[in-house]
Design goal:
alpha/beta; 5 helices; 183 residues; two-stranded antiparallel sheet; single chain
Length: 183
């Protein structure tokens, strides 16, 4: 079984969660299985080193940005494997010091992401990682934070993409997802 099919077989689907009509795709079974988790991280790193980096102008990744909260589970490991720094994007009011912020729309209202203002240097090449892309609002906000600090987003990475929502269309760089979910 190929790695994508293997990972897809481990993800659990919970119908009508968190509310009726939504099917929640649960990545936590992957994290509970060391072989599956290693497969996921290795898949991402292989993609970055064989596809993303060769196509980038600077031929390297300087920073991996992880979105609150599941991006924190993936981002530091990927950053460590790439020899890059890890930068968290948090919800408003959760980071100390001076921060830049970006507001985005969710299904049920607006939310604000922040990043420490000294986290990314101008010209640094950045990858943004999260567990899932649906409408793309939170990933887009993270990309805006990178841009405000002068960084260059070279790619967005997701475990799962909800295809019919076409969230990647609002992003300012290519997006890669391991699993494309159709419904």
């Amino acid at each position: 079984m190929a790695d994508v099919e293997y990972l897809q077989s481990i993800i659990r689907k919970h119908p009508d969660f968190p509310k009726k009509g939504i099917s929640f795709l649960d990545i936590f079974p992957i994290l509970r299985d060391p072989i599956a988790f290693e497969t996921l991280i290795t898949h991402f790193v292989h993609h970055i080193t064989s596809q993303t980096i060769p196509k980038s102008l600077r031929k390297k990744v300087d920073v991996v940005v992880g979105l609150d909260a599941r991006g924190f589970l993936l981002g530091p490991i990927i950053a460590l494997r790439l020899g890059a720094s890890f930068v968290p994007v948090r919800k408003h009011g959760k980071l100390p010091g001076e921060c830049v912020s970006a507001t985005y729309e969710k299904e049920y209202g607006a939310d604000t992401f922040e990043m420490q203002s000294d986290a990314i240097l101008p010209g640094q090449c950045v990858i943004i990682v999260d567990d899932l892309i649906a409408t793309g609002g939170s990933a887009k906000a993270a990309g805006e934070l990178v841009k405000k600090l002068g960084g260059v987003t070279v790619e967005y990475l997701f475990i799962i993409e909800i295809m019919f929502l076409k969230g990647y269309q609002c992003l300012d760089a290519p997006a890669y997802s391991v699993i494309q979910h159709l419904d």
